[in-house]
Amino acid sequence: MIDYFSIALTHGLILLALWRLMPRDELDVEGAPAEKASRPWLKDESGEEGSPDA
Amino acid sequence: MRDLVLLAFVAAVVAMGFRRPFFWVLLYIYVDIVTPQKIGFGIITSISLSLLCFVAAFAGYVLLDSKQGSRFTLRQGLIVALLGWCAITTFFLADFPVEAATKWDWVWKSLFFAAFLPLTLRTKLRLESAALVMVLAAGTIIISAGIKTVLSGGGYGVLTSLVDDNSGLYEGSTLSTVAIAMVPLTLWVAKHGSIFTERKLAMTFAVALVFASLLIPIGTQTRTGLICIAVLGVLVLRSVKYRFVYAGLAGLALLVAIPFLPASYTERMSTITEYQADESASTRVAVWRWTIDYVQANPLGGGFDAFLGNSFTYNTRQTVELGNTETVVYQEVTDEGRAYHSAYFEVLGEQGFPGFLIWLSLHGLGLWQMERIRRRYKDSKDTGEVRWRSLATALQQGHVVYLVGAVFVGVGYQPFMFMLLGLQIALYTLMKRDWQGTQVQPKPWLANQSPEGQPPEGQPPKGQPA
């Protein structure tokens, strides 16, 4: 039971992290426009008004 | 059920990797730390998951990923040199070729991946995501072990996390060392992460995870873990703003915690100073002496698991109660094939002086490089710079904790710690790139300093030495 809780929690978080990373172009190109917010389920998240990575 | 969940997770990451091949590198980090093929029961145990992910990570980078920003640095060169030297001692100099080859099977992966990882971490977001996955993957084992400690109290060699296994991170002393070494990185990811930006939630999770990490040395009842906590406590003093407040709070926390510690734990910890009566501690000292003699006779090392050839007799001192009197009894003990119980002696005995020197310089350079970043951004108020200084501090603190824990545990080639070195290398490379983008280093010995003009910001000229 404890093991299942631990696996579910961390694996869920890793998947969520990857899901949020997926649309962020700075992952592959340094200085690419950053996403305003990593909420890919929202339609208006095309990231046109991002600012370069600090 | 567990198999299905783990396989579904791996399949999901593989699928996402087709859009971002870098995810396969993160998948390998996860697989190497958690070893899902061990914690499953059915089909997953029969797949060479580690090898498949390794190939995917490597092929993904070589075939699909851009190489822009990838640099091969001096420390990666040192890792490759260590790997090459390990190959020589394994295949030409090994005292026990069969056992050496078995250990080589996982060590080469650990070293190769540590040299390869910084090539893939060519953007800051990648560096952050690798740190996050390392924390969450190790968290899988730590959270489970932490909760079990709270519920059962654990015990030396008794506490099992996800799987009853004594290898990799599932070994008690190794897990203790790694769990404590990871604490600063956990806090950094929560405080400065750009992936999980819900600060309060992230910090709550991080504090809970740090608490679980601190419980690991109690759960596994390893003395090394206690020493690691003490070292980390002192190191944090160096970077906190209000030192006296911190020291007072830490002391108070310790006082409050002591009554809650299991009796078996406090008993075992009290033996830290009674090493003469303790067979485990006495053997360590004897093995270390043996190693020093051995390496003088075999300066090139004896290959992996060379300790199998040792045999020595020593006395343990014990106080025995006979009626109302106490008598000191010396007992002669003969031991054979005792493990090194220290990364320093492990590397020295197995890789001889050449390997040991490479290993030491790899670690020494890492501490120095992190210090350089810390100093450079010491008084900076810029949020970006503060963020990277904090990461350098976290990686340096974790590294020192590991180096101290390594005195008592044979973790000379521990994959998790080599990944941490990979993060250090990547961070230093990224920082150097930033520094070169903002100022041109004077090179008076070159007649024509920049024949092709200034490189664009964030892009150093090709062939830049590391």
From TrEMBL, chain A:
Protein name per Swiss-Prot or TrEMBL: Uncharacterized protein
Comp. bias intervals (Basic and acidic residues): 36-45
Organism: Aurantiacibacter gilvus
Region (Disordered): 31-54
From TrEMBL, chain B:
Region Disordered, residue ranges: 441-466
Xref: InterPro entries: CHP03097O-antigen_lig-rel, DUF5935, O-antigen_ligase-rel_domated, WaaL-like
Gene Ontology MF terms in the entry: ligase activity
Keywords: Ligase, Membrane, Transmembrane, Transmembrane helix
TM stretches of this protein: 43-64, 76-94, 106-123, 130-147, 167-189, 201-218, 224-240, 245-265, 352-370
Chain segments annotated as coiled-coil in the UniProt record: none
Sequence ranges assigned to domain O-antigen ligase-related in this UniProt record: 209-360
Skewed-composition ranges (Pro residues): 453-466
Compartment(s): Membrane
Pfam family, one: Wzy_C
Domain DUF5935: start-end pairs: 1-193
Bilayer topology term: Multi-pass membrane protein
NCBIfam families for this protein: PEP_O_lig_1 (TIGR03097)
Protein name, as recorded: O-glycosylation ligase, exosortase A system-associated
Organism annotation: Aurantiacibacter gilvus
Organism placement in taxonomy: Bacteria, Pseudomonadati, Pseudomonadota, Alphaproteobacteria, Sphingomonadales
